[in-house]
Amino acid sequence: MGLVYETPQSLIGAEGFYPSVLMVSTISTVLAMVAGVLVYLYGPYWGVRRVPGPPALPLVGHLPLMAKYGPDVFSVLAKRYGPVFRFHMGRQPLIIVADPELCKEVGIKKFKDIPNRSIPSPIAASPLHQKGLFFTRDATWSTMRNTILSVYQPSHLASLVPTMQNIIESATENLHASEEGITFSNLSLKLATDVIGQAAFGVNFGLSKPKSTSESTRTVDDQGSQNDEVSDFINQHIYSTTQLKMDLSGSLSIIIGLLVPILQEPFRQILKRIPGTMDWKVDRTNKKLSGRLNEIVSIRMKEKNRGSKDFLSQILSARESENVAKNAFTPDYISAVTYEHLLAGSVTTSFTLSSIVYLVAGHPEVEKKLLEEIDGFGPHDRVPTAYDLQHKFPYLDQVIKEAMRFYTVSPLVARETSKEVEIGGYLLPKGTWVWLAPGVLAKDPKNFPEPDKFKPERFDPNCEEEKRRHPYALIPFGIGPRACVGQKFSLQEIKLSLIHLYRNYTFRHSFSMEKPLELEYGIVLNFKHGVKVTAIKRT
Ligand code: HEM
């Protein structure tokens, strides 16, 4: 014992050798660890350090700026740093592109070098969201996309008009009955979810229909009325959607993922086992949702005469007829892509519809012109066809474009480089997150003079402003081969809804409607307190 103790002592005393070995190795370990942490934290920054941007705080990056300026943060930074700048979402730098010509370069001209979307931390926490079209990559994505596009033929969209119209009519009965007014954004979310439920799953969720008259034509498990289950499913869907936050207000694992992504998954694994935490709730909800979706898919797969009206049936039929689609669309991918439709098709469309009603309610001169056009189309019981919707409502088109410019529901569009590529004079390494900023383009006075004024006439094809404008200045549905697959579907639904609404009502802001309207960041933009209006019956 003594010897063991003494030998090092003597070494220390005699030559000072042992402490220096110990110290050197301790110092090297600490230095290696510090270097490892620094490389981990600043590695992604190093490759893009030449791109201008504000100084970033360790770990949180520029998230405090997002808290300070809200959704306007990217316009503020574009003014200060130019059309290509750095924004650090926690540790992860994003290269934000806020110029129409450069967006065209990223989204179209250099698509083969930038074909995929980066996966942000809130999505990384949600396996359910990863197998849809949004986040699949390369060859899997293009096979899936081609099959999905084959479903969105114009004739198929046109055949959806009566379904959409039925849901719209029953959802908007007696809106004037409530004297205090209605939260239109809640109604429009139910309406859009019902429309996409019917179009994607062939299921009537019956959310927007008054309860007493609700009758399901086909329910989730196709065994008669199961309204509780359906609304449970939808509540889970809404919960899982609204929990995907892009700032620091999401679940703990998402927050950790924004700061130190490598720790997100281990933390999620621990937290999801602790009852009461948000991670536990999100995990349970996602499991239930996936289970429910897999159930729907497996029931529908076994059906012999499943018909071809809804998206799920069409994808299943395409899968059976093509080998390529069969390999890409395994049942878990089918569940994900159908669920993605519910997600992508409800929140975005509902937000757009509500923002139009909100903006028109505050601009009586726009309302007057819109009513003239809608009334001029013909008797109020004449339902417009898909062709009518595309060609006979030019002012409605302008109102929709201007509202989508004013409140761009998807202000950022994500991409990731798959090799080294030059954008706007900066060489970006493989794996760089390049995000386009349609929200900044939409408020740029170069293309939209007086950007804070709601002026649908700026989109009149005969107006100088419209003729002068860059063709990619307004890209609310994204750009290039990866642009939104649901654009025509949602425009058809929005137009049908607005025509029916304004044939029957006009709207004014309720007393409880805050001014100015407050917005919050989820995976898309949302209203903080909803759009509250009173409906006035037209006679
Ligand atoms: C007002 C309504 C909508 C808006 C503003 C909107 C916006 C967008 C945007 C900005 C993108 C990204 C495009 C890009 O990266 O260039 C996108 C992609 C997508 N959207 Fe929509 N969307 C809407 C409605 C819909 C609907 C109704 C569906 C489904 C029926 C849908 C399904 C999708 C899908 C699957 C993608 C991914 C496409 C791909 O990666 O290939 N969206 N959408």
UniProtKB/TrEMBL annotation:
Residues binding heme are: 484
Q: Where is the signal peptide?
A: none
**MF terms in GO:** heme binding; iron ion binding; monooxygenase activity; oxidoreductase activity, acting on paired donors, with incorporation or reduction of molecular oxygen
Ranges that cross the membrane: 20-42
Q: Which UniProt keywords apply?
A: Heme, Iron, Membrane, Metal-binding, Monooxygenase, Oxidoreductase, Transmembrane, Transmembrane helix
Annotated Pfam families? p450
Kindly list the cofactors needed: heme
**Family indicated by similarity:** Belongs to the cytochrome P450 family.
This one is known as Thromboxane-A synthase
What organism does the UniProt record list as the source? Answer: Theobroma cacao (Cacao)
The upper taxonomy is: Eukaryota, Viridiplantae, Streptophyta, Embryophyta, Tracheophyta
